[in-house]
Amino acid sequence: MSDRKLASPGSIYFLLVCLLLYTPIVLLIIFSFNNSTSLVFPLKGFTLQWYVMIFKNPELLKAVGNSLMIGFGSSLVATILGTMGAIAIVRFKLAGRSTFLAVSALPLVIPYVIFGVSLLILFNEIGIKLSAFAAGLAHVIISIPYALLIISSRLVGFPDNLEEAAMDLGASYWGALLRVTIPICSPALLAAFLLCFTISFDEYAIASFLVGTDATLPVYLFSQLRFPTRLPMVVALAAILMSVTMMVMLFTEWLRRIGQSPARKG
Fold first, then answer.
1. CB within 8 A of 80, min separation 6: which ones?
2. Residue 183 belongs to domain with CATH number
3. Which of 74, 216, 256, 257 is deepest in the core (most CB within 10 A)?
């Protein structure tokens, strides 16, 4: 029976998808240790010099700092706003709830290049200069839908009578939110924050229009592809980013499942 499952079309399709997704990542990691500037087989030898060069490049470290600052700030704001929106949608019967959901989901379907050009024109008209701050505002906008969906799914998972019970015991509505709702939703909040941070940290299209001279890491990496001698260092850094991103996404999925498990038990 197990042999039939392994040979089923679904299993074969799944294996092919995994092969297409992860083979480039494996090759990227392998070439990051290659003692040559050419990314071809056979490998010339094992070396860690490309990883050492990463920490000796001040421009690259500055770009990493910009990405971390933008990612942390935009993710925090997006998680807060997404939490507020999720509570409004799930706990209250708003008159324009469907319209609010449709507008909130627009950043998910608008191509980032078009979105970046639109924000570039808007910021230029209202006097916001191209900077890390401008890119951070854009990343807040594109991250809110993800936070909203993750936190809404958690709020749907437990009854609102817990909040009512807290208020019956003397807590105010805001006290019930802080002492009951937020602690129960904490895994979903952390998962939303990590997902928003990953999206912001890896985003290139919008940032390339808005950061100005405050280059983020993806923008810096793309600019370095013009120099063949720097390509191995870029590959080494990309290997680090891919590994960290995969670990963060796995951790986020684990948190999401933990956050939904009480609802399944109930």
1. none
2. 1.10.3720.10
3. 216
